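#onboarding

Welcome to the new folks! Below is a worked example of what a typical request in this channel looks like: someone posts a single protein sequence, and someone else replies with the predicted structure as tokens. Don't worry about understanding the tokens yet, we'll cover that in week two.

Example request:
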Amino acid sequence: MRKSPVLFIVVFLSLALIPLFAAGQDLVGPTSREAILEHTPAWQDLVAAYQPKPEALDKLRGLVREVRIEVYFGSWCPDSMAHVSAFFKILDLADTPLLQPVYFGIPEAKNKRAAYYEGKDIIKLPTFLVIVDGREAGRIVETPKKSVEEDLVRILGL
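Example response:
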């Protein structure tokens, strides 16, 4: 799979600038997309630059039932920066109310994390829990196998 050099440059520069934008404080607990982007404005460039696979987006648009996606991320975490911002773009372009995201910021200090995801078996960040009909259908942990959108399609059997 060929990676875009522009995306690489945007990610590299954004990662280098994280300390300037995050002001040294983690975004923790239940939160929203708006709060995430306000706290870590460098992620906005990644949202704009990400190019999801059109075939996967078409399949996500064809959802016939609600899917809850719990997103556990670290505002300080480079993998979260890359994959949660990609997820934002996927939601924008899929444009379906059946994809229902819920966001949970996790602190960087490992000894303070458990309270934010108790009982969820979160080991690495980001973790996307895909929940259908109240049951976990699958998860994306840290780095997608293909891409966030293609992994969602696989998990949902679309």
